[in-house]
Amino acid sequence: MTTMLSAPVRPVPAAAPEPRWVKPSVAALLLSSGVLYLWNLAKNGWGNDFYAMAVQAGTWSWKALFFGSLDPGNVVTVDKPPFSLWVMGLSGRIFGFSSWSLLVPDALAGVASVGLLYLAVRRISGPGAGLLAGAGLALTPVAALMFRYDNPDAFLVLLLVAAAYCLVRALEHASTKWLVLAGAALGFGFLDKMLQAFLVLPAFVLTYAVAAPVSLGRRIGQLCAAAAAVLVSAGWWVLAVAVWPVANRPYISGSTDNSVLQLAFGYNGLSRIFGGSHGGGRTFTPPSGAGPRAGTAGLTRLFSGEFGGEASWLLPAALVGLAAGLWFTRRAPRTDATRAALLLWGGWLAGTALVLSYMSGIIHSYYTVALAPGVAATVAISTRELWRGRANFAARVVLAVMLAVTVVWSFLLLARVPQWQPWIRYTLLALGAAVVLTLLFGTARLRRLGPAVAVLGLCAAMLGTTSFTLATAAKAHTGGGPTSGPSVAKGHSPGIGTGQPSAALIGLLRTTTTKWAAAQTSAMQAAGLALASGRPVLAIGGFSGNDPAPTLTQFQEYVTDGDVRYYVAGGRGGFGGRRDSGEIQSWVERHFAPVAVGGTTVYDLAKPVG
């Protein structure tokens, strides 16, 4: 068994004839992934209005696109770096701003992620394992959710998989060039979702430090070069924001001192992991019944509640396969290819899973999309190697255990929605039981019917996650906290987002010619106005209404200069408001008369009272 799992780090030989089934199978994988992610995509509308508002602003203003501003007047940014907004904004500029131009880049990022994962796994474990890894990623429910959505997570996955592919290439001949490219991809991942991109770094460093076919000193030097690439690719935008005159750029939303680094290590960093205000981030106390449904921190979080249905379908099998693979390769040479692959993808899985499991700050279940490539690749690599060694009883036992835990866990996940297609869970249970028994006790049949057994085993393992994925893609998802699966009520997280603004209010905003048609507290409310009217709206206080942008003095100047026409009442932050926002509202109420427009209170800022 150890022999079957051991091979030196090297590329797939270029001269080796490729089986005829490979190219059609890869084409089918990519085509089916494209159909899954692109079919009826427009039903998701603007997806997350918050990011859609920033993309809309980027189609009006290059400066807003560069900073990730919420409005073309560049008052305040989104609370994330702007990489994903750059791609979606450029799409909107080229094809016109619409639901399709907004969401198609994310869907294509999904197809590219599947393709790159196939290539990365194939180089060490062959095309069969590559196809299984690509299919595992494509058919993870949370992947179908995020690759059809405008959150930053789609591009985070693409950049991380691209980095892993470059690392695999670097391992083949200890290539500094490919290792630097891996670092550059991780750096751009930071510009997409900050420190979450670095959760895979320990696995990447460990893999190269252990398995690269070169001296230790050379490995350390190359890793330092890769670290420099990370700093340069992530730091150029951070430096640009830092040296840009503060008075001439938007406020960095979510930070306490208007800096990107404080945002990265505070609100989007230590505060996410430890909760509270670690790292200088603000402490948000969600109102009763509001906020993301985080579950209880601990090792069971990823298997419980909404987290379980997102990406845990193959997670038990991945853990079993990882442990078995590392055990069977324990005596292999340092540069063993299979062990290197298991360190890479298994380390990705373990590091990301532990952080997501124990995070005490703001967390959403869709964050688990970052787990999906690690889970899919680990399962594919270990399954392929164990299947190659199936003449060994120990290998068959591990395969049987992997399949059994997958089938049982899929049955339990499907049982959480008992009224939805109950035949699926009983079918996979029957298939799984038959294949497990054949692996353990049907040695002669396994030799004769090996391909058929393999196909039935894959069907049993993948039926649950595939059904959930298809149900996810069939549903419309909008709002700040989308979740996957067939449940009827999927959409806004409680307390985040609002209903559609009235036609009368939208009609009123469309008649304006000012810099901002209106202002409203917090982006989650202002975004609906901007997207529906096609006119710029000032989101006071950024996402949550907590940012000091604009200040009362600045807002008064906007009104005096005739830059903003209406103030729309009723807006509030996702997690409460800030004093600046309350002062602005109080000032407006004292100096302007309210008028009801389509059931909404509106103040005409061009007509002061008295």
Automatic annotation (TrEMBL):
Domain Putative mannosyltransferase YkcA/B-like C-terminal, first and last residues per copy: 511-591
User: What EC number(s) has UniProt assigned to this enzyme?
Assistant: 2.4.-.-
Cell location: Cell membrane
Molecular function terms, GO-annotated: glycosyltransferase activity
Keyword Acetylation listed? no
Q: Report domain Glycosyltransferase RgtA/B/C/D-like positions.
A: 79-236
Sorted alphabetically, which keywords does the UniProt record give?
Cell membrane, Glycosyltransferase, Membrane, Transferase, Transmembrane, Transmembrane helix
Transmembrane regions: 94-121, 128-147, 153-168, 197-216, 223-247, 311-328, 340-359, 393-417, 423-441, 453-474
Topology within the bilayer: Multi-pass membrane protein
What InterPro entries does the record point to? LipidA_mod_glycosyltrf_83 (IPR050297), RgtA/B/C-like (IPR038731), YkcA/B-like_C (IPR056785)
Record's protein name = Glycosyltransferase family 39 protein
